[in-house]
Design a protein that fits this description.
- By secondary structure, the chain is of the alpha+beta class.
- It folds into three domains: about 80 residues; about 110 residues, Immunoglobulin-like; about 80 residues, Cytochrome Bc1 Complex, Chain D, domain 2, CATH 1.10.760.10.
- The protein is built from eight helices and ten strands.
- The strands form two sheets. Strands 3-2-1-5-8 form a five-stranded mixed β-sheet.
- The radius of gyration is 28 Å and the shape is elongated.
- The structure holds dinuclear copper ion.
- The site of dinuclear copper ion has 9 residues, from loops.
Amino acid sequence: MLRKLVAAVSIAVLSAFAAGSAFAARGGIGPPGPDTPSGEAISRLYWVVLGLCAVVFVLVETALILFIIRFRRRRDTPESAEGPQIHGNTRLEIIWTAIPALLLAALAIFTFTQIPAVQAQGIEDEQHLTIRVEAHQFYWEYRYPGGEVTVNTLYLPVDEPVELELTGMDVIHSWWVPALTGKMDAIPGRINSLRFVPETTGDFEGKCAELCGIQHAFMPTTVSVLGQDDEYESTLASQQETLALGKATWEGACATCHGLSGEGDIGPSIAGNGTLSNEDGLKTLLENGQNTSQFDYYMPPVGRGWPPEQLDALMAYIKSNETLSTAPPTTTGGGG
Ligand code: CUA
């Protein structure tokens, strides 16, 4: 009995240590960052809730272990013996109802006080940048007020409040860059907004947080926060150059399923495929996808809602890339 108890406790302690060092490698058990006031509010909430839960957990589990030991069956107690039959204790029952109720009320009140900070309420009245976020299977398309487009990387100027307008172009996705703010669903047919103020320059990694299909795990995003002077403007402008936009579009919209060189991955090999150089055919395919029993492969409508420059940029990039634009000497694998 005692030996089993010691073994169980040692296993618990060892796994706590193993988990602890695993977490430490990722920068602790807390949320990453925070690098925005929204992120700070989320961290505050996280630590207060975790702290309160930890105190309750330790108290309850300690009492549980003590009671198991203190009130165990003794060697000289007959097996048929029954414990004392206790019917109610009003004072105890009131205490163990009131304390949890008070704790939950305190947590709820604290949570409500943090919501305005998490949602960066008030910035919509200030001068702010509005960026449309279109989530596709399986990449992120960012549309800026000046008509610029970027794929998977969102460029932002530091210290300028931003409001993201998120929508889904096919299924439900969820935008989540934990160092900056909470996550928000991108739902077809509606616009959800997410506001925050990036206060630190640098790259912040995020991902799609809603299971959205076979390549959901390969739907990362990066928020690149740049200096306010003209670093932001010039970087965004350089991303609009035809080949840069074409390459980003190829890598985000096409390569995720067809491989970086079009060699095929979960989607068929498309390197050198005639459709890649047929503007009308490619446009139709990208806008509508492929979802009929005539073809072996389902393809999402990855190019739905693209501005015309983006298709041109993609075609220019394909043309500039010999592997993609040259028909392979022997045809292998399925078409598409
Ligand atoms: Cu998009 Cu998961």
